[in-house]
User: What shape does this take?
Amino acid sequence: MQFSEMSLVPEILRAVEEIGYTEATDIQIGAIPVLLSGKDLIGRSNTGTGKTAAFGIPVVQMVAQSNQERGQVLILSPTRELAMQTGVEVRKFSKYLQNIRVAVVCGGESMQFQIRQLRTAQIIVGTPGRIMDHMRRRTLSLENLKTVILDEADEMLNMGFVEDIQTILRQAPENRQTVLFSATMPPAILKITKEFQTDPQMIAVDKGQKTVDNIAQYYCNVPNVDKTNALKLLLAYHRPKRALVFCNTKKTVDELCTQLKEGGFQAAGIHGDLKQNQRNQVMSDFKNGHVGILIATDVAARGIDVEDVDAVFNYDIPDEDEYYIHRIGRTGRAGKTGASYTLTASRTQLKRLHSLERFMDSHIAEAPVPKTEDIQEQHLKKFRGNLKQLLDESSGSEWISFIEELEQSGYDAKKVAAALCKTVYEKDRSLRTLKNVQVEKQNPVQPEVARVNIDIGTESKINADFIVGTIVEATGLAIGAIGKIAIYRDHTVVEMAPTDAELVLKKMNGYRIRQRTIHITELKGKKPASFTQNAGKAHPSYGSRRYTGGKSHSGPGAAHKYHNGRSK
Ligand code: ADP
Ligand code: MG
Assistant: This one.
């Protein structure tokens, strides 16, 4: 995409052209519109992919279109050099906008000069330490602050700026925009994100890989006979405005379509056996909202170009890995978030799902099938809300005389209202056919735990957070998938599920940590004593990490043990 297609003001376009950029990079294409819209953002892409312009260009535009009061944008950088370099770049973007001033505040420079700059600058770039200095001296005020950018957030955390960043963000106005850029996403960053961002958009750019980060992926494991029932429960609970349901065969599409329609759902099916005019009809019904649920085969879905799909349901788990991406990629388009639900109905299918996770390099979380009681409750709440709203609006006043007539002929107004509620509430036939799925407690597919040995340890100044962050970053595994960690002088042992261990071995052998190429092996055989002492369970537990002890005496064999367990 060209910068000229990005609704930028002519002054910025001219500057960008002069610098020599024509095509925007992927992270720029993703981030610039989100920043301009005022939303919070997490941007992840490798070094050298143009993150500076990804925030530099939109902040200049935002200031250009504002009242130009000072102190609107704060860009935090980990180092003095980077802050200065960012300052230079941002000034280039604002070259043709006379009134925009950029102040660079970092250590080792004249305080007086910085103070003078701060009196007028709308955009302030600096290191956290010096920014706090100015805040303390009251030479920098955050009262006009609209946007905070944390550039190279991972590096800032590595350098121990966490507390400074927290202090700064806590003093910033609540309704500001918070944007975070990083090349990696260690857990500590996700913590900052949770505390200081509101509903952030995630833009992650991996070389050549389609990003599905804005799609929440779930699966439900159900008995085979209950698949249709489970789908109905999911549909009734989530009530997507537009949903796509995928089946592997035309026959299943037809059967499922009949069953959903019988159950009161507005569904239609599409597959290769339909005539072109039938397909057109189905597609236009889906697009204009007459039909909210479209059931399709992979082949038929290829021609579907609908942007606003809230959720994708895989009634059948796809035969081909690539299909899974194509299917779920139908939702979460145009910067929106989406969700996908995949039904698995056997151990083989569950294994297949885990292999999809590996292929996708992302986590698919297990979700319970909603219960009829939850759905009833949810619908009732909504019904009550709608009714209250109608009453507040005095809607239906033209019916009062009719009710009075009924009262005069001896009917109680309360009873009349109750009868009407029943009629209206039960109009949604889909609620009547729902029945709960009986999920039999199966043994998990992988009860055993694998132990992965990494040849790096305390002598390389690493800790458990760092190990977890590195693994998550390199493999896309969820933080919770990583179990107990024992760090020794020159190696580290990490527990996880065997399929996850396979992934770590595949992805991380030859990976570089702390300027070293690391080697990873799987440890076979019995656990050493140091593990079993602290280990409560035989398999990793899931949840946030908890430090449960680490002996301070060092030397070979003294391990720092961490337990990645649920603390509740
Ligand atoms: P990052 O922050 O990801 O490390 P930078 O913002 O420092 O990346 O950009 C890396 C290099 O790419 C810089 O030399 C920058 O001038 C250049 N660059 C950035 N955006 C573009 C673009 N759209 N077209 C060409 N070069 C670009
Ligand atoms: Mg950068």
Confidence is low (pLDDT under 50) at residues 528-568. Residues 256 and 483 are 40 Å apart (CA to CA).
